[in-house]
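INFO worker-7 received task bundle
INFO bundle size: 2
INFO processing item 0
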Amino acid sequence: MQPVLASFLTPDSPASPNADEMQTIYVVMLIVAALLVIAINVALIAAVARFRARRDATPARRTAARGIVPRVAGGFGLLALVLFVVGIVFAESVRDADPSGPDGLQAAATRTARGNVVPPPPSDDAETLTINAIGQQWLWRYEYPVKESDDQSFQPVFSYEKLIVPEDTTVVLNVTSTDVVHRWGVPALAGKVDAVPGQVATTWFKADEAGESFDGHSYQYSGPGYATMRTEVEVVTAEEYETWVEEQQRLISEGQQAVQDELETPAQATEAG
């Protein structure tokens, strides 16, 4: 389901604090650019109307007022400096992850990502949920942290294409690739991140409300199947997320056990024969 407020002039309506910051700076730059285009064209039309050559008349020779060029250049330079500073401020704000909210996944402190392909970075934030996003030709694999059982057994939990996240929870996403360069991006939640083999790039988002789904794409050409490499982020409540992880862990464990039993049956039959 696409956000209903998406416009042809702006990105998808933001559903995460960092996406909101990115859209704000986008709108600011769009307005400044529109005002510059209008001002330049108005000045050009005014100059043409005022100094145009009239029939049977010799055009008057005119020069610009003294100092006008430095003043105009200084004004544009000051505008460029202000935009540069504003861009830095917003970029730093986007990088800093917000803490999870009261409806977020409070159990994240008891979770660990042991056994995942990409280890999560250490974090002192007990409310941060770290998930690994691994690109490969041509799909995304998501690896989730899971609780350790009392008998110390461990079963990794993963999903393909669809990423399940709890609402109001800061999700730190570790992005990498197993083959070529891919680019993860969900405009309503976070900016684009390159998935490079052998490297881990990090981004974050905090989905505002459960019950929403957001579409994303791989924005880097990665081969003939590139167009089919899509992703979806589904936002659920914290309780639904916990239940989903436990159920997914059970289903994966049962599936692997079924495969193991299938492989052992012919071997046992051979030995018995």
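INFO item 0 finished
INFO processing item 1
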Amino acid sequence: MTFEQALQLFVPLHVIGGTAALALFWIAAVLKKGSPLHRRVGQAYLAAMLVILITAIPLIALTWMRGNVVMSVFLAYLTALIAISCRNTLAAIRFREDPARFFGRDVQVLAFVVGLAGVAVIVLGLTRQAWILVGFGMIGPFLLTATGKAIRARRRGAVLEPRWWLKEHYGAVVANGAATHIAFFQIGMSRLFPNADLGVIQNLAWFGPLVAAFVAAAWLNRRYGVQRAQPIEGISS
């Protein structure tokens, strides 16, 4: 067995993890938020996302070995985005009473890496006129800026919304949901519509879930958003 063949063994595991994550995402979405079953399904969802992250690494290496450097860089960037979203999904619940831990060094490092990777992806997209790369690359610098703004605000003794952790939690879940739907549509739409223009399918598969994620986040903000804020406690500069 060659090294490339060994890397291909991770493909089925990646597909299984992605399929499970997609199903669990919708199961958790329809369950009562905060219920014991919702929490258990959420834990299973994060486990499936972890499988995706772990198996993505050899698949990125496989893509690189096959000479598709641009795609391998892009996939590595997307994997980093998913990693920070998974971290925030769990950390928002675990550290709801400790914002300092949520805005800790780990998320700062992840945001910095994602921000730099996003800039690299934007440059790759511009040089190759690949607008999908440009569009998704902008997420990295935006995330870095938003994280930096939150860190600076809390060091100045700013205030947090009472349910800030809830917004961080569902925001991260929506982001990961968009990622799993993109992967699903990339595979499924070309098979459902074999005669359709490939460029149109790719744009719909990439940007459709992204637009839906923004709409879902806006709806969740309206439903669960709060009007008052409270001083940040337990945070020092």
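INFO item 1 finished
INFO post-check item 1: The longest helix spans residues 36-65.
INFO post-check item 1: Residues 126 and 134 are 7 Å apart (CA to CA).
INFO worker-7 idle
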